[in-house]
Amino acid sequence: MEPLAIHGGAPVRTEFLPYGHQWIDEQDIASVVEVLKSDWITQGAKVEEFENRMADYCGAKYAVAVSSGTAALHAACAVAGISRGDEAITTPITFAATANAIMYCGGKPVFADIKEDTLNIDPEEIRKKLSPRTRAILPVDFAGHPADLDEIRVIAEENKLIVIEDACHAIGAEYKKKGTGSLADMTVFSFHPVKHITTGEGGMIVTDNKGFYENLKTFRHHGIVKHSSREGSWHYEIDSLGYNLRITDFQCALGLSQMNKLDSFIRRRREIASGYNEAFAEVKEIIIPVEKDYVRSSYHIYVIQLRTGMLTVGRKEVLEAMRAENIGVNVHYMPLHLHPFYQRELGYNKGDYPRAERYYDRAITLPIFPKMSDHDVDDVIKAIKKVTLNYRS
Ligand SMILES: *Cc1c(COP(=O)(O)O)cnc(C)c1O
Q1: What's the rounded Cα separation, in Å, for the pair 286 and 342?
Q2: What are the mean pLDDT values of the chain's consecutive 10-residue runs (393 residues total)?
Q3: Ligand 1 atom with minimal separation from the 73 CA
Q4: CB 90 less than 6 A from any atom of ligand 1
Q5: Protein residue with least CA distance to atom 14, ligand 1
Q6: Atom of ligand 1 at shortest distance to CA of 191?
Q7: Which of 24, 181, 182, 301 has a CA 20 to 30 Å removed from the CA of 3?
Q8: From the CB of 74, is ligand 1 less than 6 Å away?
Q9: What's the rounded Cα separation, in Å, for the pair 69 and 314?
Q10: How far apart are CA 390 and CA 380, in angstroms?
């Protein structure tokens, strides 16, 4: 048995492989430069072009581009009417921004535990958390696998709630033959560099609801509304409290150029995932991610779970051993209710969400991004086999 790098052996590879990385090519660079040389570097035509392109891609009527995925969630929560004293239900297994967006509006994030197979929010758990103050449900399409949107929409209709789908992991994913962006009242995407396509920082809200669309645009731009009025053509009025959540035109030019590659990016991610699935079928210490037959995941991340009972060590040691082999493994995510902030502010405690906690104790995210070569993929597989073999009980 080859000794682990963490014990002084030779690492599987010499160069560190990150878990995610952007793909920027000459075309992307040329599109950005073109806008930088033009008259409008912000609030110009590229923003709307990017929005239209995204609405088309999703089969939705409207899209609003903003400065980040977090800003998109904030705007969506605001126009959904979440305000002081309201509750919104979301999963504890998500990035902090999902819960924080609810809090920006004065609302309380109420967590509902996950399903053990897809790791998405469990509709049965959502039902248990409903209260007269519930206004919205924010499912997260974890790792790129859409949540149970049919069941969630039924709960929302029965209780007059708004569904804001956090699809920051799941652009281009499909649920029962329909794409993300056509499954909820509002769907949110992020264009951070680790996501499928990037604008550096950036985000988008997609919706079929004209009222939401108009309010999102107002919220993005200080609450300003323009009326042709007796004051003259320069005139505008502040009609509500808004922010500056705008994105620049050169970022949108990058987004448009990235959109040309989105389908090929997703194909490559799915190819890497199926390579992993095949290789790990024989590694009995790990559980591979579930993909339901009515879903096409877009694999923002590839998360395995360790059968820790079959290993002499826990997740922490396996993660450190993988990093020593120069494989950039990660953890997505520490359940939100375990963070001091949500415990202090909202009264959550360890033990509140047992399935999320059990998942967290066993989860490891492996590298997956379109620029990865087949050789990189083989290195990850080699390292996983090496580490699990060394720690086999
Ligand atoms: C990335 C991400 C966000 C936030 O997006 P930013 O563009 O980084 O602000 C929100 N929710 C989830 C699930 C994410 O993965």
Answers
A1: 31
A2: 96 97 98 97 97 98 98 98 98 98 98 98 98 98 98 98 98 98 98 98 98 98 84 86 98 98 98 98 97 98 97 97 98 98 98 98 98 98 98 95
A3: 10
A4: no
A5: 168
A6: 7
A7: 301
A8: no
A9: 33
A10: 15
Cβ(22) – ligand 1 distance below 6 Å: no
Q: For residue 59, is it left (φ>0), alpha (ψ between -120 and 50) or beta?
A: left
What are the tens digits of pLDDT across the range 261-301? 999 999 999 999 999 999 999 999 999 999 999 999 999 99
Strands 203-207 and 186-190: what pairing?
A: antiparallel
Cα–Cα distances in angstroms (integers) from residue 270 to residues 59, 63, 339, in the given order: 22, 26, 32
DSSP 302-369: EEEEE-GGGBSS-HHHHHHHHHHTTB--B-----GGGSHHHHHHH---TTS-HHHHHHHHHEEEEP--
pTM of the model: 0.98
CA of 340 to the centre of ligand 1 (A): 20
Q: pLDDT tens across 158-205, in order?
A: 999 999 999 999 999 999 999 999 999 999 999 999 999 999 999 999
Residue 292 CB-density burial (10 A; 0-12 exposed, 13-18 middle, 19+ buried): middle
Mutate to test the pocket of ligand 1, among 68, 100, 168, 251 (most ligand atoms within 8 A of CB): 168
Q: What span, in angstroms and rounded, lies between the C-alpha atoms of 213 and 206?
A: 8
Q: Are 194 and 169 in contact (CB under 8 A)?
A: no
Q: Rounded distance, CA 324 to CA 340, Å?
A: 29
- 80-99 pLDDT, tens digit each: 999 999 999 999 999 999 99
Ligand 1 pocket, residue 272 CB under 6 Å: no
